[in-house]
Amino acid sequence: MKKRLNVVLALFLALILLTSCSSGAKDLASSGDASADGKTYKFKLAHITPPSHMWHKAAEKFKEELSKRSDGRIELEIYPSSQLGSEADMMQQIESGSVDFGFITAAYTSSRSPSFAAWFAPYAFKDLEAAHAARESEPAKKILATLDEQGITGLDYLFAGQRVMLFKDKHVKKPEDMKGLKLRVTPSPPMQDFYKSTGASTEGLPLPEVYSAVQTGVIDGMDMDLDAAITNKYYEVAKYGAVTNHMVWPAVAMVNKSTFEGMSEEDQKIVRESLKAAADYAVETRSGQEEEFRKELADNGMEIYDIDPELFKPYIEEFDKKYGPTDPLIQEFIDSVRK
Ligand code: BEZ
Q1: Do 283 and 161 form a contact (C-beta atoms < 8 A)?
Q2: pLDDT tens string 278-289
Q3: Is the Cβ–Cβ distance between 192 and 202 less than 8 Å?
Q4: 41, 157, 198, 314 — which has fewest CB within 10 A?
């Protein structure tokens, strides 16, 4: 009888232990507060940009909103500037659950889940707000859901500026002027293919190597966003800045799938709403900064100008023709944004 009682007690204790561990290592002891299930969390979020970049500011907003909406139960530690490694490392950490959240470039994400390449359809959005709105479309949501099979939940997209072109000493006024130039373009096939179609060649240099590569003439220019152009002082080494805004530059907000699914529905809602607040904040802030950034670059000696998007029409068509047929989701996305 006593032995049976011990077995029942052991089973009971194991059940309690299993239930309390259901949200993974980040699920700390119950705080006993008035929340839906009383659980407290200390999550980690990693990304590659420095604290001055909009994605980091969005991460801080996400942290603030999580804390506010959960009465302090959900805490977030942010690791910027690739402190936890490259994006490949970070995504692996998110998959394994050693890091909970990430803001990972759609460029890198597309190397793991190809339909994210759809976001690099050139000149697909009239402005940043239009891209921000497109993140709520069915194709954009289906693209996020492709991360599921990797043990990751894709939650949302965050936008910093759009992509522009900086040239060391050639005043490029039309796509044909890029022929023969060696340009740094993020190592993402859709981004690089767009440049290659103009006759430029591309180098997939990581960000920290770009400044000296332009300075020493290893490359003739780069694809960049205005925030990073200022943060990294590229105006010191590149004379011309064409504010083409030819592609958007989303970060994919993602979380370890079992961590997310282990949260109560109410807490999942808090996460989604906090992220939406961060995404709205980023786009509202960044949209209003275009003029200020152009002026800052010009004040630092860069010649800032526009190129008529119509001149890129043949290259846009070439992109759509090449990438649409590679994946039904990319085709669906392109059809929805070009209509
Ligand atoms: C880039 O690799 O071009 C980049 C990465 C993160 C933020 C901005 C630019």
Answers
A1: no
A2: 999 999 999 999
A3: yes
A4: 314
Which mutation among 184, 195, 202, 207 tests ligand 1's pocket best, with the greatest number of atoms within 8 A of CB?
A: 207
Nearest CA to ligand 1 atom 6: 49
How remote is the CA of residue 137 from the centroid of ligand 1, in Å?
A: 25
- The answer to whether 58 and 283 have CB atoms below 8 angstroms apart is no
- pLDDT confidence band for 4 (50 / 70 / 90): low
Give the pocket of ligand 1 (CB within 6 Å).
Answer: 48-49, 53, 186, 207, 224-225, 228
Burial of 115 (0-12, 13-18, 19+ CB in 10 A): buried
Give the separation between CA 295 and CA 291, rounded to whole angstroms. Answer: 6
Residue 105 CA, ligand 1 centroid: distance in Å: 8
Mean pLDDT, the chain, whole residue set: 91
Our mutation pick for probing the ligand 1 site, out of 53, 186, 248, counting the most ligand atoms within 8 A of Cβ, is 186
Q: Tell which CATH architecture fits domain 41-338.
A: 3-Layer(aba) Sandwich (3.40)
Is there a contact between 205 and 184 (Cβ–Cβ < 8 Å)?
A: yes
Rounded distance between C-alpha atoms, residue 65 and residue 273, angstroms: 8
- Beta strand ranges found along the chain (DSSP E): 27-28, 40-47, 74-79, 101-105, 152-159, 163-167, 182-184, 201-203, 221-225, 240-242, 250-256, 303-305
Q: Report how far ligand 1's centroid is from the alpha carbon of 163 (Å).
A: 9
Residue by residue, DSSP assigns 57-69 as HHHHHHHHHHHHH
Band the pLDDT of 243: cuts 50, 70, 90: very high
**Pairing assessment for the beta strands 152-159 and 250-256 based on DSSP bridges:** antiparallel
